[in-house]
Design a protein that fits this description.
The chain is mainly beta. It contains one helix and eleven strands, in the order E-E-E-H-E-E-E-E-E-E-E-E. The chain is globular and about 40 Å long.
Length: 138
């Protein structure tokens, strides 16, 4: 059974989409490509079947980069603000959704099921549960 659609958008709000759960997977990816694309130790990627994804606005603002050496890796981004946006996964019938783009994730949203390419995480990475977590910038 499908849930109600979840709205998502880029940082500037000009690219909007909706995704209808359930997600087929949700994981943190620590591969070197996700580190470069996110500027972080990992990307938080959720996946849905293509039929469960819909662009709402701003699709013409999206630029796509397919990393030629990779079988499936791609980065789509908003040309106005640079935010990564969802993309169709090459060779599959699903969309990768950068989880941080969901405007109001529901309380019952599934948690990431695993971290992949763990051996590729940067040496400086520290799990959040191993350091103080603050509610705001200090």
């Amino acid at each position: 059974m499908l849930s109600l659609p979840l709205a998502g958008s880029c940082l500037c709000g000009r690219v909007k989409f909706e995704v209808t759960p359930p997600f087929t997977a949700f994981r943190y990816c620590h591969c070197s490509r996700c580190q470069k694309a996110s500027g972080s130790a990992h990307a938080a990627n959720a996946f849905v079947a293509a039929a469960q994804f819909k662009w709402r606005e701003g699709e013409a603002l999206i630029k796509r980069y397919d990393h030629a050496p990779a079988q499936r890796f791609a980065v789509w981004f908003c040309t106005q603000c640079g935010s990564r946006v969802p993309h169709a996964v090459r060779g599959r019938d699903d969309f990768l959704i950068p989880a941080g783009l969901l405007d109001q994730p529901p309380a019952d949203m599934p948690r990431p099921e695993n971290s992949i390419f763990w051996g590729s995480r940067p040496a400086w990475y520290v799990s959040p549960n191993k350091m103080p977590c603050l509610d705001e910038y200090t």
